[in-house]
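Anyone up for a design puzzle?
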């Protein structure tokens, strides 16, 4: 088993990884930026190394500084968490070239899934359903208009190298397409270093459902279960639940089979997620993307399976047999507690003057902050994940309501009032909702 682990991340996911590593007797090394020196994840690690200033490019994305920290501390392995360098194939390759264990999929798998056009084509060849769309980057606006005529409006314009809900726009007609192609291309060049754009058919009423997969050390790929991720703002998730209230046994079998095909197509190892769009009217689903890392929402899968996914990642990376429970029980919900106002979801950073986490049966909080810490503008607005588990969905919702009331945060703005509203929303309560639910709540 791995004996020492450097966590190339910060905040709640760093604390989450440290918690499992400590239970397994693994020495932990935290890296941190200068302003993060007194954050909880730094204080909880066995060792800590400052890798640069607040700017992520000079700290949490600073490959040379991170590798130097691993060497100076005698780390045996690196866990990238999510975000930052977690889906950077070049970083994964550098880790392996330095004789360190990379806790994630191969650089080749990351590369294969990192480009959305390549990923679509690979999945189609493997028999995974994909939405109608382009098989090559759109060269210019005229090519986009010609392709859209065959796909049909509305059209989703996507940055081929994008991720995390960024670099996407919807065009309902040719005039809008002309504008959005250029906007997405410019954004993609600035953010991702590639201006390649693809087009896909946009489904106005759709659900976002994903499947957790594990590529085992023995070469097998298994699919655990699905998660519902349709409560979103600006294509970014706010709430997830497992299992999905929209997925019955027959549809679940189809989802899991497609996810296994997706993983096998790239020889996948370690934890990953196959994301799909589900048309609730027809029961048809389409491959969206594969996240080649641990997802933010992994705790709800852990709870319904009774497993620790970080532990499984470490076992697989060490070449050890994983200990997987494929059966599920109960219902879990995760709420992403962000430093943002609950109406327009604009960032609201600040110093935390009050931080009281809720407790009670079936309540779990994975947090990155504490009283006295500061939520700055340099990093993601996620402060904590409020996770609840119960025997059934109604009880899980009731526990979530109580936990939201019991979570006390002062200083930064936060979206707890939005969750209180959502948990009393009739559309959400019935389980018959889609990715437009937040827009309807705010219209």
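Challenge accepted. My sequence:
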């Amino acid at each position: 088993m791995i004996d020492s682990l450097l966590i190339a991340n910060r905040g709640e996911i760093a604390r989450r990884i440290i918690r499992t590593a400590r239970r397994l007797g693994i020495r932990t090394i935290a890296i941190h930026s200068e302003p993060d020196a007194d954050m909880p994840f730094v204080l909880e690690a066995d060792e800590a190394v400052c890798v640069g200033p607040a700017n992520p490019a000079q700290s949490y994305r600073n490959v040379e500084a991170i590798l130097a920290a691993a060497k100076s501390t005698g780390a045996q392995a690196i866990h990238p968490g999510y975000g930052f360098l977690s889906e950077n194939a070049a970083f994964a390759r550098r880790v392996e070239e330095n004789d360190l264990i990379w806790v994630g999929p191969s650089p080749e798998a990351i590369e294969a899934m990192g480009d959305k056009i390549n990923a679509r084509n690979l999945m189609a060849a493997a028999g995974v359903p994909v939405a109608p769309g382009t098989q090559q980057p759109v060269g210019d606006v005229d090519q986009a208009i010609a392709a859209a005529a065959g796909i049909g409006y509305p059209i989703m314009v996507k940055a081929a190298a994008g991720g995390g809900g960024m670099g996407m726009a919807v065009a309902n007609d040719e005039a809008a397409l002309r504008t959005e192609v250029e906007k997405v291309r410019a954004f993609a060049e600035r953010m991702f270093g590639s201006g390649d754009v693809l087009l896909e058919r946009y489904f106005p009423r759709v659900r976002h459902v994903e499947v957790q997969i594990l590529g085992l050390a023995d070469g097998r790929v298994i699919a655990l279960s699905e998660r519902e991720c349709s409560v979103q703002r600006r294509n970014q998730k706010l709430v997830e639940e497992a299992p999905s209230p929209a997925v019955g046994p027959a549809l679940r079998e189809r989802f899991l089979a497609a996810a296994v095909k997706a993983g096998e197509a790239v020889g996948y190892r370690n934890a990953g997620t196959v994301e799909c769009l589900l048309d609730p009217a027809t029961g048809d689903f389409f491959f969206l993307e594969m996240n080649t890392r641990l997802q933010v929402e992994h705790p709800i899968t852990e709870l319904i399976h009774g497993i620790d996914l970080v532990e499984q990642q470490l076992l697989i990376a060490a070449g050890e047999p994983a200990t997987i429970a494929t059966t599920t029980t109960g219902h879990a919900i995760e709420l992403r507690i962000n430093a943002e106002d609950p109406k327009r979801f604009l960032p609201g950073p600040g110093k935390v003057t009050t931080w009281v986490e809720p407790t009670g049966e079936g309540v779990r909080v994975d947090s990155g902050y504490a009283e006295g810490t500061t939520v700055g503008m340099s990093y993601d607005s996620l402060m904590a994940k409020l996770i609840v588990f119960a025997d059934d969905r109604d009880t899980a919702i009731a526990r979530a309501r109580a936990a939201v009331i019991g979570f006390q945060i002062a200083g930064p703005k936060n979206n707890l009032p939005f969750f209180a509203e959502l948990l009393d929303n009739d559309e959400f309560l019935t389980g018959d909702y889609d990715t437009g639910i937040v827009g309807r709540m705010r219209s």
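A detail worth pointing out: Residues 174-192 form the longest helix (19 residues).
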